[in-house]
Each structure stands twice: as structure tokens, then as C-alpha cells.
Amino acid sequence: MKLKAIVITGLFLFCLSVSWAEKKPNIIYILADDLGYGDVGFNGGNKILTPTLDQMANEGMVFNRHYSGSTVCGPSRSCLMHGLHTGNAPVRENPRWTKSGKPVDMTLEDVTIAEELKRAGYTTAVIGKWGLAENLDEGMPLKQGFDYFYGFCTHGAAHHYYPEEIWENNQHIKLEGNVMMDKKGKYSQDLFIDKALNFIEENKTNPFFLYFTPTIPHYELTVPEEHKEYYSKQDWPLRKMKLGHYRHDENGHVTYASMVTRLDKDINRILEQLKKLGIDENTLVIFTSDNGHEYDNVKNEFLNSNGNFRGKKRDLYEGGIHVPFVAHWPGTIKSASSTNHISAFWDLLPTVCDIAGIKPSVQTDGISYLPALTGREKDQKEHDYLYWEFNEGRGPIQAVLKDQWKLVKYYGKNAELYNLDEDISEQKNIAGNYPDKTKQLEQLMNSARTEHPEFPIEPHSRLKKKN
After folding, report:
1. At what angle do helices 73-82 and 348-356 cross, to 10 degrees?
2. Which class in CATH covers the domain with range 26-385?
3. In this predicted model, what pLDDT tens digit does every residue of 59-93 receive, in sequence order?
4. Strands (E), 133-241
5. N or C: which terminal CB in the chain sees fewer CB atoms within 10 Å?
6. Which long-range contacts (CB under 8 A, 24 or more apart) does 91-97 make?
7. CA-to-CA distance for 92 and 328, rounded, in angstroms?
8. In what order do the strands lie in the sheet with 325-328?
């Protein structure tokens, strides 16, 4: 009887593996822009309504310790696409923050997630902000493994929600009736969600990878009035926004919250469509943010966008890189589960390869977190360390995380050491108390990166004078 049970169990597992191989899971990766860890309900946010994301958490898994690739969007997205941290990624800073001052894009030699998944038979799309083709050349999405692209190639274009032109594949299309400065015409998020839903519908019978990258809630802060109804009725203080390059709506708190809830509603449309098409149980949906928030004032917080963390966008403290993460995969991920596995953007490439049943074709800094996703924590490999570097106006800044120890170092200053298990808010610098640990992590920090002529660890004196 026992032998019979073993045979039956073995046959079931074999059939399950064959089924997975025959019908590979769809993957939808949703990347918000400048959304803080504390902006979502499942992380304790209590001012902004995110019912869909909270439902995803109730039905799926929350990663409590997930980190972005960088503290600004360009390099963060490069880390995501290439499976490399900022010490090795082809794009390590935003466009003008290079030694020459000229934008650096990925090249045809760089291997992306999309190219890996194409090998496994996936149809691929990026809809929203790409931000890795400033030169409109080799970095263009269709040259980087994507079958379909709709959105913004460059950072500047993505700053506005009523663009007068937009890219579809390799064509730059004029949006008739849109007046960017007057915020008239078609709201970009409306265009993005429609294209995303169309892509899912058109590819419902074949495995697909959708990289959905809305610009919400990146500056500028604006949203159609009908989406402000709930927050306009709240007794909130006015944070008056000023018009300039960004054509903000006047009431910052109301607009920011309304934008986040608007995004949440669009994610609900995606989940509902998956159910309607009968492919929800064969689709992994991941939601996260490219870096910490920019909007909330950490000196006078109202929305508490960074939760208990210190800092925000452009910091390498937790508030700049510790981002929300929820995964939804009915029937595969255990409902209302969470993990403290330490993961980062550069883990996505090996993870999707693992899901697709292939090995990465290139060396990465990442580790597949599929075991953690599927409740097999005992099989989950761990990082020896995580590394970041960032070099804008206050840079260079470097950070390394090893177990509970976090080292942050500003150029020309003494390193700061924090024990995140005891001080997640990074309020107590204990470098003086642990000189050996500080030295060990500094040595690790120095060895973590490869040299790049455009991204040296030195101050941008030319840009500082210019700006």
C-alpha cells in the first residue's frame, strides 16, 4: 500500500512538471514609478486606498525585504533588465550623470529578460516607461528582445501625462488633441492600460511576458478630476504645488493619493481580465516600485510614504531602495503569505528563467526567488551581500547589505554602519562600536564593482559647477 502511494505521488509530480513545461506560466511585472514603501495598504499605509494591491497580498505573497536596483529609475531599470547590480550594470546612473555628460544606454551585446524569455517561447511587451534608450538607438525595446512596445523611450518625455507624442514599436506617433503644457487630451495612463489589456487579450493562448511600467506617481502630479472625488472630500491640509517644468495640479496630497488609487484600479482591471480569460491561475503577477518616493516631505511627513524608513528617492538609506513587493499567482502561491528572504531587482532575470525552465545565458548577480515564492524556503539560496552605488549631486554614495548589517558610505566621509534587525530606521550609526565589521564591509564594498569609464566613483565636479 505504501509503495502504491509513493508511485501515485511520483506520477502526480511528474504530470505536474509536464503540465508546467507544456503550458508555461505567463508573467506580468508591474513597476510603479517613485512609489514609497508606505504608500500601500499591505505595508501599513492608512491614507491612500490600495484595495487591489491589498487583495493581492491577501491572496498571494508579500516580500518584506525586497530592494530596488537603484534609488533613481534609469539604473534601477537596468539592474532589473540585466540581472546585475549597479556596480556591474551597463547603465548605472540617470542620463546626464555620466563622466562625459552624455547618456549611456544598453548595447546589443547586453542580454535582457525579454531576450532570455524569447528563447523559451514567450511573446514579450513593454508598455509604459522604458527609459533605457536616451539615444534612440541600440537601447530601443525592439532591439532588446521585446516584440511590442508602447510608451516613452526617454526620461524627459515620461515627465508629462498629456504627451504630444508617444512611441509605438519603432514609430513616433503624434497624439492629436494633446497639449502637454495645458494638460489637455488623452491621459497617458489611459493609453497604457488599454494597450496592456489588448496585449493580454491577443496573447491569451501563448505564454507571454508583460513588463507594465506606468509613470504613476512620478512627478508631474496630475490626474483627471473624476479620480479625485474621494480624496477631495477628506479633511487634509493643502500642500500647494507650483507650476514649472512639471505641470502639477495645485493640491499635492489629494493628487498624489488619487494617482496611486487610480493605478490600483487599473491593476484590478488586469486581474479581472485574467480571470475572465481563464488564465489567472497560469499567470504570475508581481507589483513593485522602481525606487523610493519623491513626493512626501520626510521633515514634515503627511502620507508617511517611506513607512519606518529613513530617506527617500536619491538616498541609499532604506527609504530610497527598500520597496513594496507583492506577488499573485492563484493556486501556486500560498494565500496571505510573506517572506523575509532578502531579494533585489537583479534577481528577476534568474527567477523568470527558472519559471520558464531555462538557464540564464549570461552571468548575473541575481538568485532566483522562485523557491521563496512557492513556499519552498528550505530550497531558497541566499545572497552573500547586496550592493548599490549612486552618483548624483551628493554622490558618490555606496551601500552594501550583508545579513542584518548595512554600510552606507558618502565619498570622502567615514562609513556609517547600521544593524537593521535592531534599527530598521537607520538612526544609530554604530561604526565606531564595530570597527572590524565596518572594515570588512568596506573591503566588500570596494571589491563588489567593476570599473566603467563613464561611472567612476568620484564627484561630478563638472556637473556640480554647471548645476
Report:
1. 30
2. alpha beta
3. 999 999 999 999 999 999 999 999 999 999 999 99
4. 148-152, 165-168, 171-174, 208-213
5. N
6. 91/132, 92/389, 92/391, 92/452, 92/454, 92/455, 93/390, 93/391, 93/392, 93/455, 94/155, 94/392, 95/134, 95/154, 95/155, 96/463, 97/391, 97/392, 97/460, 97/463
7. 30
8. 171-174, 165-168, 148-152, 123-129, 208-213, 26-32, 283-289, 325-328, 61-63, 337-339
3-state secondary structure of 189: helix
Q: Rounded CA gap, 44 and 38, in Å?
A: 6
Residue 442 near residue 81 (C-beta atoms within 8 A)? no
Instruction: Report which DSSP code applies to 242.
Output: P
CATH architecture of 388-466: 2-Layer Sandwich (3.30)
User: 181: exposed, middle or buried (C-beta count within 10 Å: 0-12, 13-18, 19+)?
Assistant: exposed
**Mind giving me the DSSP string for 78-121?**
HHHHHT--TTT-S--S-TT-SSSSS-----TTS--HHHHHHHTT
Q: How confident is the model at residue 22 (pLDDT cuts 50, 70, 90)?
A: low
Nearest in space to 34 (alpha carbons), one of 342, 255, 426, 296: 296
Provide the whole-model pTM: 0.94
Distance CA 93, CA 110 (A): 17
User: What count of residues does the chain have?
Assistant: 467
Residues of the chain with CATH 3.30.1120.10: 388-466
Q: Which amino acid is at 327?
A: A
Give CA–CA dist 129/84, Å, rounded. 20
C-alpha cell at 109: 551585446
Tell me the mean pLDDT in the region 215-236.
98
Q: Where in the chain is the domain with CATH 3.40.720.10?
A: 26-385
Provide the grid cell at 285: 503577477
> How many C-beta atoms lie closer than 10 Å to residue 64's C-beta?
14
Cell readout for 112 is 535582457
